[in-house]
Amino acid sequence: MPPRTSPSATSSPATDLLFRILIGAIAVFIPFATASWIGGNTVAFLTTDADSRAPFRPADALLHPHDLWPKTGDTALTIGTLVFPCVLLVAIAAIAARLYMRHKNGTKGRKAVKGMATRRDVEPLLARQITAKAKELRPSLAKSGTKKIDPQEIGVLLGDLAGTRHEIRMGYEDVAVAIMAPRSGKTTCLAIPAILGAPGAVLLTSNKAAGDAYTATLEARGKVGRTWSMDPQQIAHAPREMWWNPLADATSLEGAGRLAGHFVAASVDSSNAGDFWSKAAQNILGQLFLAAALDQRPITDVMQWLAFPADRTPLDLLRDHGFDAVAAQLKGTVEGPPETRDGIYETARQYAACLLSADIAAWITPQDDVAEFRPAEFVQGRDTLYLLSKDGGGGASALIAACADSVMRTATAHAERSGGRLDPPMLAVLDEAANVCKISDLPDLYSHLGSRGIIPITILQSYRQGQKVWGDSGMDAMWSAATIKVIGSGIDDPDFADKLSRMIGDHDVETVSTSTSESGTSKSVSMRQERILPADAIRALAKGTAICLATGMRAAMLTLRPWYKEPGAAELSAASQRASQAITARAVAKAAPKQDNFGQAA
To answer: What is the C-alpha separation between 178 and 434, in angstroms, rounded?
Structure first.
């Protein structure tokens, strides 16, 4: 585009400066003179009588006060026409400064970025449209007849549109991926508010307890439903008040294979999951899981069969239940070359090694004194399931992934029997998914979970972390299928930052050139395109802000809203502190030496 040149200015820089000084003087003189007239009338009324009110002549009030109030004394006029205006204007300036600072602090991080989404661009995520959409998705809201619907019933709060107070929410048909580095607000600004506001059942996976989503939401969620805590590695030192049967969904070859796949995924990366030994070990585990499930045996029996490949019990169980082909495959492996068989069985033993731990096995084997967690009942209510596992938990994290997978698949089946969607929807917050919830086909599940009223929010620390678990194609598939993508601060991957920069796009920028000559000053304006957010700006994204990429909309800058700054935060903070103290007390009690009957430390 050719540059546009404005006509030459006829004024010199000195003339411009004098003009600005004149405008500034007028801007100060008029309010001050007006305040002098108000002050003069006031002191004249107080010191003389009501008839001494002067007409509105602010200049005379300031410069010739005796002409307007001849009966008023000098001291009173000085106070009214000079002291009072000074005090009044200083007070107004102080109040204005305080309001400005309050506004500045209240909107810190809210500054809009030129070229990114405006209110009109993200209107489908604002209150009016998302409420109308929620009524379509949830018949219970339409039938309730309530005119004012609680915002938590219509969608998950993501934050405010930068520069505004407009709330941005993802609807209960969206599926989300959040890539946020540690201490960038992924838990305080995303996971915890989503859990606290969920209208239905909630599933949370995490590798932390104290001071995290577990303690912050445990008491609040306990008021709306039952809380279930599966803590096989005692991250929260939670008492064992539940057990879950992982073989409940393993009575078919497909279900048993999925369960075995979780043990493999928890132990190897996507690059090694397809090698011979991993695939063979997964097949053996699947066949043994199927045999145990068909005979309603505990999953720990599988470890006995792995220890003694010659044990014919699983072969007989498979044949007794009509799985002759599976039994033949198992027999072929057992009677195959000893070197190959031993390698396959040893690999399978390593993948399922967590089943050897009595403490872990207690959470997944029948217990008479605790309740059984049944996913089919869970997805129909408003209970909360906390699945806790350590990073690199191996087989223990396999059980966490298996339980989360079972809940989501059960929810899908229930939705299909209930008209196609869950109402209220179920929220699945998969925090630290790449560490403790490696569901191998999670990218495929993203394509239909949202349409069933199952809302997953997978939280990762980086894009590469997801590639390590699901591979390049798998992570790309999940990224593409996610209708909401939230990117927080701390993105240090240059390739991913550049990819985001290209997705956000370019915008037109005016370039103003000024030239001065003897005839005056001239300006020319030209247009050029530049990145709305270059890669270095994405890397330097301030804490408390995030980029939101919603399907079919321009990229938006969000101001995150941590739960501890919301109404009711004091009560939630106290509850979180109580839960953290309870964890500490349980940990100390376990660490204390036990005493025998004679009072001696055992």
So the answer is: 12
pTM, rounded to two decimals: 0.80
Cα dihedral: 459, 461, 467, 468 (round 10): -110
Q: Which helix (H) or strand (E) holds 229?
A: strand 227-230
Check whether 551 has a pLDDT greater than 60: yes
Q: Which residues contact 69 (CB under 8 A, 6 or more apart)?
A: 40, 41, 43, 44, 48, 52, 54, 77
Task: Note the pLDDT of residue 192.
Answer: 96
Instruction: List pLDDT tens digits, range 133-179.
Output: 998 889 888 777 677 888 889 999 999 999 898 999 999 999 999 99
Residue 117 phi/psi, 5-degree rounding, is -60, 140
CA distance 558 to 547: 6
CA distance 188 to 176: 17
Question: How far apart, in whole angstroms, are the C-alpha atoms of residue 306 and residue 302?
Answer: 6
Which of left, alpha, beta for 477 (phi over 0: left; psi -120 to 50: alpha)? alpha
* CA pair distance 481, 478, nearest whole angstrom: 5
> CB neighbours of 556 closer than 8 A, spacing ≥ 6?
116, 117, 121, 122, 161, 162, 168, 547, 548, 550
Q: How far apart are CA 204 and CA 426, in angstroms?
A: 11
> Cis (ω within 30 of 0) for the bond into 424?
yes
Cβ–Cβ under 8 Å, residues 37 and 69:
no
- Whole-number pLDDT of residue 62: 77
Q: Which helix (H) or strand (E) holds 527?
A: strand 520-531
Is there a contact between 15 and 521 (Cβ–Cβ < 8 Å)? no
Place 515 in a pLDDT band, splitting at 50, 70 and 90: confident
Question: Poorest-confidence range of 69-78, 102-111, 336-345?
Answer: 102-111
- 168 within 8 A of 394, measured Cβ to Cβ: no
pLDDT of residue 304: 95
For residue 512, the model assigns a pLDDT of 78
Question: Quick one: tokens of 437?
Answer: 């919830």
Question: Closest by alpha carbon to 371, among 471, 279, 239?
Answer: 239
Three-state DSSP at 528 gives: strand
Give the single-character DSSP code of 601: B
